[in-house]
Write a structure and sequence with these properties.
alpha+beta; 6 helices; 46% helix; flat
């Protein structure tokens, strides 16, 4: 049975630790269904299958971004649920909005998912700079790359220190 549900982007708190949550819910009022939510920033009524696909792409995008940050030595706290407040709301909103909007065009959707899978392995910058892709594919690659651009503003990165005897 397939019905309509809401795809939400909200902030929440559990045991004094805040987080962002992107999820699907069945109630029009997210704070009633999930008591730990504080504020709803996005709420879209959508078919259940569409919500599942969009949620997959959003989570894939966020995992790519978080993995890149971790690889580069940035520390992102792991909240008890959802996404760390270390990621700014505007970054998460951009990712949420892009995938929600892109889902409306199946050709762009499939292309964007393919680019996201490539982005997991390598940067799209070299592909963008080359003549390998053109037109809407190049535009989508630029957007995907931009969705992964966020880096925390910090004067130092957290890396393990070398032992003193080396």
């Amino acid at each position: 049975m397939s019905g309509n549900i809401y795809l939400i982007l909200a902030s929440g708190e559990i045991n004094g630790i805040g987080f962002w949550l992107i999820d699907k819910i069945y109630n029009e009022f997210p704070m009633i269904e999930k008591k730990y939510l504080l504020e709803c920033h996005r709420k879209e009524l959508i078919a259940e299958e569409s919500a599942r696909d969009i949620l997959y792409a959003i989570n894939f995008n966020l995992n790519n971004l978080l993995n890149e940050l971790q690889y580069e030595g940035f520390t992102i706290e792991k909240p008890p649920k959802g996404i760390s407040f270390n990621l700014p709301l505007d970054v998460i909103e951009d990712i949420f909005d892009f995938w929600l909007e892109t889902y409306k065009n199946k050709n762009y959707w499939q292309t964007s998912l393919g680019l996201l899978k490539i982005k997991k392995r390598i940067s799209l910058l070299s592909i963008i700079k080359s003549k390998a892709i053109k037109n809407h594919v190049k535009d989508l690659a630029c957007i995907i790359e931009k969705l992964h651009k966020y880096r925390p503003y910090t004067s130092e990165r957290y890396k393990s220190k070398d032992p003193m005897w080396q």
